[in-house]
Amino acid sequence: MKRTLVTIGASYAGVQLAASARELGFDGSILLLGDEPDAPYQRPPLSKGFLTGSVAAERLPLRAQAFFDEERIQWMPSTRAVAIDRERRQVELHDGTRVDYDHLALTTGARVRKLDCPGATLAAVHYLRDLRDARRLADTARSARRAVVIGGGYIGLEAAASLRQKGVDVSVVETEQRLLARVASPWVSDFILQAHREHGVRFEFGRKVVRLRDTHDMHDMVSVELEDGTCLLCDLVVVGIGVIPNTELAADCGLKVAGGIAVDTCARTSDPSIVAAGDCASFVPHWAPEGAPACRIESVQNANDMARKAASTLVGRAEPYRALPWFWSDQYDLKLQMAGVNAGFTGFAVRGRVEERKFSLFYFRDDMLIAVDSINRPQDHMLARKLLANRVRISAQQAGDPAFDLKVLANRSEAVAPRTA
Ligand SMILES: Cc1cc2nc3c(=O)[nH]c(=O)nc-3n(C[C@H](O)[C@H](O)[C@H](O)COP(=O)(O)OP(=O)(O)OC[C@H]3O[C@@H](n4cnc5c(N)ncnc54)[C@H](O)[C@@H]3O)c2cc1C
Question: Domains along the chain?
Answer without folding.
Answer: 4-45+55-111+244-314 (3.50.50.60), 125-241 (3.50.50.60), 333-416 (3.30.390.30)
